[in-house]
Design a protein that fits this description.
It holds the Pfam family Erythro_esteras. It comes from Stackebrandtia nassauensis (strain DSM 44728 / CIP 108903 / NRRL B-16338 / NBRC 102104 / LLR-40K-21). This is Erythromycin esterase. The protein is an alpha/beta fold and 401 residues long. It has two domains: 291 residues, EreA/ChaN-like  fold; 91 residues, no CATH class. Helices cover 41% and strands 16% of the residues. It contains 17 helices and eleven strands. The strands form two sheets. Strands 1, 2, 3, 4, 5, 6, 7, 8 and 11 form a nine-stranded mixed beta sheet that branches. Strands 9-10 form a two-stranded antiparallel ribbon. α3 runs parallel beside α6, α9 crosses α11 and α11 runs antiparallel to α12. 48% of the residues are buried.
């Protein structure tokens, strides 16, 4: 059994951006650096992910950033950071008011994108670093469309679709599956881009009907279909940027950490990290995970409700976070693939958009050394600085309910 001293001795300091030097030495030669987050609403994850990415771009010439975000929204951000539009990145991101707005409409992302626009201004246009969404078929916008449809055609099913009465159930009743699939496909066709990525998008649109059908059905099939499309988008972007292109990916730990090192594999679920390592090799893919102790995050207790600051309880006994907390280290960097204690399977916390603050739900059995190359640890977490939080508190933002 590992001791607190074993973990403490494994941990490098993480007080300032200079402390990222060891991480950069290992990650800089990879073609794909996948950087996670332990929740969609924690400041530390967003801020340190941005710090790592700034150095990869500025010091090692990484070509683009691909995020777990809706394609159309990200195209507007991309136009801003590459100065294809006059709009300030902050104005573009503040304009993202649809639920769940806090994922990217936050000060941490605005600061990074403003930095990226300034960095790009010094480069020839063809060398400017882009910002792209991995969800070519917009995920959250699609859910909003589905809920609107259900309100008019199957109102009794709205709570089920939002996860109130049964998480994991299909997003629509079986008798409405065909109609909603056709609706989402039409909406996606209408939102098709007319830009340099139109050809790549057209290839993905050809499979849009199957994608939406899988999403509405739910379960592992829906998850894996989304993952396959994310992989296709990422590889198309890499091909478009040329044989020497290198990418930074921002997504939740459940996407970037190798699924085979978690209980996801037992459910037949794959993910981006697993596929990219299989397709490109372990030397070309470097994965950074995040873990946090107790504190607060931005999230919702039920899908579709207004964002709020929610408590994160202390780590579950025996979990990875409990082991890290017992080390007494406030924050640090660990190359988990180098330490035997990280080869034991332990629960790791995973908070998404929806957060059960009783702490009963968000745990993923994980072998950290096989899931990530490196792990950043924060004993206390604070909420991401969502730009529309006050409006959400006043009930002025659109919600799904």
């Amino acid at each position: 059994m590992p001791t607190a001293a074993d973990v403490r001795d494994s941990m490098l300091s993480l007080d300032g951006t200079d402390d990222l030097d060891p991480l950069l030495r290992r990650a800089r030669s990879a073609r794909f650096v996948l950087i996670g987050e332990a929740s969609h609403g924690g400041h530390e994850y967003y801020a340190w992910r941005a710090a790592i990415t700034r150095r990869l771009i500025a010091e090692h010439g990484f070509s683009f950033v691909a995020v777990e975000g809706d394609g159309p929204d990200c195209r507007r951000v991309d136009a801003s950071v590459r100065s294809d539009s006059a709009a300030d990145p902050g104005d573009v991101l503040e304009g993202q008011r649809g639920w769940p707005s806090w994922l990217w409409a936050n000060e941490e992302t605005i600061e990074f994108c403003r930095w990226l626009r300034q960095h790009n201004a010094e480069l020839p246009h063809r060398q400017r670093v882009g910002w792209y969404g991995l969800d070519a078929h917009p995920l959250h916008a699609s859910i909003r469309t589905v809920v609107d449809y259900l309100r008019d055609n199957a109102p009794d099913y709205v709570d089920t679709a939002l996860g109130v009465h049964g998480r994991g159930k299909p997003l629509v009743p079986a008798e409405h599956l065909e109609s909603v699939t056709e609706l989402l496909t039409r909406v996606h066709e209408a939102d098709a881009p007319d830009d340099e990525y139109a050809a790549q998008d057209a290839k993905l649109r050809a499979g849009a009907e199957g994608y939406y059908n899988a999403m509405l059905t739910g379960g592992s099939f829906g998850w894996n279909t989304r993952v396959a499309h994310m992989v296709a988008v990422l590889e198309d972007l890499a091909d478009h940027h040329g044989p020497n292109a290198r990418a930074v990916v921002w997504a939740h730990n459940t996407h970037v950490g190798d699924a085979r090192a978690t209980a996801m594999a037992e459910r037949g679920e794959h993910n981006l990290g697993e596929f990219m390592k299989d397709r490109h090799g372990v030397t070309d893919v470097f994965t950074v995970g995040f873990a946090g102790g107790q504190g607060e995050v931005i999230a919702v207790p039920v899908r579709g409700e207004p964002m709020r600051v929610m408590p994160v309880p202390p780590p579950r006994p025996g979990s990875l976070e409990a082991l890290l907390a017992d080390s007494g280290t406030e924050r640090g960097l660990i190359f988990v693939d180098e330490h035997e204690w990280a080869r034991e399977k332990r629960d790791q916390r995973a908070i998404g958009v929806v957060h059960d603050d009783t702490d009963d739900d968000h745990w993923v059995p994980t072998v950290a050394a096989e899931r990530y190359n490196a792990l950043c640890w924060f004993a206390a977490t604070t909420p991401v600085r969502a730009v529309h939080l006050d409006e959400a508190r006043r009930g002025e933002l659109p919600v799904l309910r």
